[in-house]
Amino acid sequence: FIVFLLWEKFGKTYAKMFPGPRHPVVKVIGLMIIILVYSRFGEAQFPRVCTSTENIRRKECCPTPPGFTETCGGSGRGRCADIPDATVDDNAWKPAYQVDDRRHWPTVFFTRACVCEGNFSGYDCRKCTWGCRGPNCSTKAISKRRNVRHLKSEDKAKLRHYLDTMKKATSDYVMALDFYEDIKGSDNFANVSAYDYFVALHYYASRATMPPYSKGYCKIPEDCEIDFAHQGSGFPTWHRAFLLEFERALQEVNSDPDFTIPYWDWTESENCNVCTNYIVGDNNEDGSLDTRSVFATWQTICVQLDPFLNSTQMNHTKPCDVTKHDGKVMRNPGHQDKRKYGQSMDRLPLAAEVDFALRFPTFDKKPYNKMADCGFRNLLEGFADTRTGKHRGDRYENGTLVPGAHTLHNHVHLYLDGTLVPGAHTLHNHVHLYLDG
Predict the structure, then answer these.
(1) Which of 2, 295, 331, 386 could disulfide-pair with 418, CB 3.0 to 4.6 Å?
(2) What are the E-state strand segments in 32-169?
(3) What is the pTM of this model?
């Protein structure tokens, strides 16, 4: 969700503000990391090769990469080792966290994994860390992102083709069809496309905890709303890692290590100037995509989820089934409900709002969630007012709803409308990538 325009403008400013790892909320960020444990450990989640009954029983993910004879590649590349648990528990966390299969990630599932050496990375240490290339990962590579609207016609065509290829290719990761207590082996996981893997990953990080009602944790929805990717200090870092992993997967599927995801500078226009068939697809009046767009046939997953009542009190306690399609991608920019979200929903955020956010030198402030005032992170994420810097929630005046703040990141998502809006599955609408970019 991090608009690259912001990161490009924020980069130098942020470096001057925070030149070293001295920010007081680092311990909070540690909880938020779902994709990676440490840069020298392989990616988390579930590599297909690590989902056998024996792997799950031993809680070990140390595969031998293709072309090698030793697990994790052996000396000079990687080794199998215990995973240290860096999570710092906090008494303020909701009780439901204690039964969440994402707690102390990934040690609930795996306690041993590949520890990669040097510039090697990946679940089997076959890949290079971000910014490195070559057979020994010793070549430093600098990638340059470009404004998506300034791409040449052939580059726009390549972008569309690469994304469509990724949507059709099978990922070497699988997604869990059950929660931790019921996972025994490969039958509890399902294949997913390389693109939909990231849709499901975003859902997995953002979804609520859903233990059976009989456990006593979830009497009302708020009891079990635990989002590991949003509404906290880890919001920017989680999404930056998420984007880089997506970009690497896009490069691998298309055998193009030099390709970079472009960015969308949405301050160039108050309307969606990338919603054309040359970029992300034009829109029909009903919110569907123009049939001439390559993305018009894309199917979605994890959209039509069980309501909270069914997921807990009726004991339908299963995660999203990635094998079931919910329909096609929808997008209806500028038609969001202004009574519910505010009068500004018929346009995109303004450059002045970006400039306002840049004025705040403090990254985040207590309570480090959507209620935080006068911190950069909450302004960026969109729960703070870009006129005052303070959180502003919904309120009622004489029985009439006065919408709270929905700014910057949140504003763009709401403006675009359609499949993009529900927080756990926004990646279906690939405009999301250019926001992340």
Answers:
(1) 331
(2) 46-47, 60-61, 78-82, 112-116, 120-121, 127-128, 132-133, 139-140
(3) 0.88
